[in-house]
User: Fold this.
Amino acid sequence: MPITDWPLAERPREKLINQGAAALSDAELLAIFLRTGMPGRSAVDLARDLLNGFGSLRDLVQADMPTFCRHPGLGPAKYVQLQAVMEMARRHLFEELKRGTALTSPGAVRQYLRSRLAHLPHEVFACLFLDNQHRVIAFEELFQGTLDSASVYPREVVKRALSLNAAAVILTHNHPSGVAEPSQADQMLTRRLKEALALVDIRVLDHLVVGDGEPVSFAERGLL
Assistant:
């Protein structure tokens, strides 16, 4: 049955207008993005097929273009649109983050870091550089590694922090496995970076590990 024949309250667009985007399922949100279905399949039916095919919305979003375009109903135009939507969302979150301070907006920090790192298939180490009032100066991905580890050089982190005139940093990296539990290697790296940055009077406020769920905070764990 076409979506236009559904009761108004059950149509994804009308449901979003009346109840907000959070009330929609992954399939309903994806259906709005797709706009149209295929012969014999509504946009919601197609969205469900795609989610089953990819395994999850996260896997769909992080798919490369060849993988994305192999699925019926998708193509280069949809891939480009999706990447543009994701980038707009990241930029919006960054603007929201810059409105406050890192210490008074911990939820915004976590949300932004998840948007930047959670979908990546490889490990990335990055920093939020902050001024002396803990306002965000910049976010930069500094090192990329394999699925297992990343080579992080404290000297380069210090050099970049000094060039931005940063007074403090929030370290972050992702675990592509989805499990955000800090490893022993993560803890050793954090100590090395904290010691190196302390030599030039730059504070490490936190180290957040990003996985599938809520990022894990070293500060909250007492690991700093």
Summary: The two ends are 57 Å apart (CA to CA). The CA atoms of residues 99 and 135 lie 8 Å apart.
